Amino acid sequence: MHNMPSTESGNAPAKATGTAKKPKSQLNQKQLQELEKAGKICRAAKRSVYATKMAERNVTTTLVETTLTKIKTCSSTAQSAAKSTRSRKTATKTELAAKKAMLAGVQNIQSEAIRKHRDDKEALDDYAVNQNLSEASRATLEITIPALLETAGGDDLPGIDDLFIAGVQANFDAWMAADETQGTAQSDATSQRTDRDKMIKEIIKVRIDIQLAADALWPYTDKKNAAVRRVFLLPPDRPFRP
């Protein structure tokens, strides 16, 4: 085969551009406030001055420590969800870049196939010259591109050598891999957000339970309890209602 002409043909593996950004936590302001509030109340409940009385209301040290651990886990899970979302977006950019380079290389092959087989319709059909591949579905491209490259590999097209074909194949492989990465990252992000939301509900439930216990142990009717009630984020002059 001949050497490839020095034209923009997309045979070099594509690289996605852009600077990676630090993922943001996938917690909204209300969720962040809930976790902060729960953390404060749990830390108050584990203080020795309150722990004994709290245990009388089934607010055990184990429950408190487990909830504090869950708060940390929830935050890290939210961070993981943000990273997964970022990974999906990066994979999308990679997929688009690889597809663009792949189709540029295919176009070059098709052009040379037309030059060689201009009067051979059957041969040109093997190169999909009458198909608009830029608008084709993924399913169509997944079948058409490998077959086209296999045909080109056994043909002596002007300027299309093994290295050129390997470059188009590399972009096809990158395009396929990026799609798989997108699917995995999206699945991970969805699962992580579901776990995050479940943990937040469980944390809020415990937080409210602790506050209700504190509300009963240190009722607002006794003014001496005002300071303790503030520790548990309870109104000092009225009953707690979640």
Structural commentary:
The chain is mainly alpha-helical and 242 residues long. Helices cover 68% and strands 0% of the residues. It contains 7 helices and no strands. It has helices at residues 29-45, 48-56, 61-116, 121-125, 138-153, 162-217, 226-231. The chain is rod-shaped, with a radius of gyration of 31 Å. The N and C termini lie far apart (78 Å).
Salient structural properties:
242 residues; mainly alpha
Nutshell version of this structure?
The chain is mainly alpha-helical and 242 residues long. The chain is 68% helix and 0% strand.
* Termini Cα gap: 78 Å
Question: Helix count, per DSSP?
Answer: 7
The helix fraction, in percent, is 55-70%
> Could you give the count of β-strands?
0
Estimate the mean pLDDT confidence. Answer: 91
- Overall geometry: rod-shaped
Task: Summarize the SSE layout with pairings.
Blueprint: H1 29-45, H2 48-56, H3 61-116, H4 121-125, H5 138-153, H6 162-217, H7 226-231
Helix pairs in contact: 1-3, 1-6, 3-6, 5-6
